[in-house]
Specification:
The chain is of the alpha+beta class. 28% of the residues lie in helices and 22% in strands. The longest helix is centred in the last third of the chain and has 30 residues.
Length: 363
Amino acid sequence: MGNTFGQLFRVTTFGESHGGGVGVVIDGCPPRIALSDSDIQGELHRRRPGQSKITTQRKEPDRAEILSGLFEGQTLGTPIAILVRNEDARPEAYESMRETWRPSHADFTYEAKYGIRNWQGGGRASARETVGRVAAGAVARRVLATLFPKVEIVAYVMQVHEIAAWIDRRTVTANSVEQSIVRCPDENASAKMIELIEKTRAEGDSLGGTIECVARNVPIGLGEPVFDKLEADLARGMLSLPATKGFEIGSGFAATRMRGSEHNDPFEKREDRVGTATNFSGGIQGGISNGEEIYFRVAFKPTATIAREQRTITTGGQTTTLRARGRHDPCVLPRAVPMVEAMTALVLCDHALRQRAIDLARA
């Protein structure tokens, strides 16, 4: 079943949007990793609903309960179970969706696949499932900080609809990203994005955009040749997030307009290591990290739930119209930033543990 992600650092998320709660079970976390409630809570706070005027107004405190795998502030090496209870669920708001398929949602495909679906807020297909990913990502960050203290992961909103920001990925910091409620560190673009999101929400519509992520100081050698290439696993992680529609790494699609002589990254000697003069490869060559910054972009579609009347059909095949009920984000990007960072941490952590096994075998 597709509820588990990772090889050595394995996470399995559980729960539905309007059920008792959501969470994650993490298996394969090394022992004696320092971990506290605040490490997890800080990341969940960045993802939680109701955090600003441009996000969904569902009010969830998202308090993490660590049920197992931790003792006296350290991981035990046993499964870590984390539960977040749903406290502001309103399943009755979705009664009209019981027998109606919402446009661009998973209602139709879930029912076609399983013969049953949870119509209360999307159930398992809801973005609320990502609570478990973000909690697991916080644990993965602690593992990475122990193995490779210099690794840094920063994601930020690059574009909302047609408003594009100018951001220097070499110098952008997590603090600068958090200064904006839209999580765009370009002040001018940020103000325009917020204004457009508010205007679009008032019109009952939604917006999409692009998030860029940069991972710095990733050690050389992470990633496996052929099927488990580092960029392939990053792409899989990002495209498993709700509302994603595209992934590109390094030069991405721009490489199609370049010649090999322009695109190749020349090697050069830098003090005690090998580097590249350019980084069109996005820090990965042959599926393996080369020590340069890893950077990629993820495209998110406009939120499917909108307050405008839309054409659809019922489960009985009758044509009807539907106006969304419940609470939703007019633009998912601000809250998707910590989700992108979490999936990046999960991929890097898993490959770091896999490489550590190879290094031990070579020693």
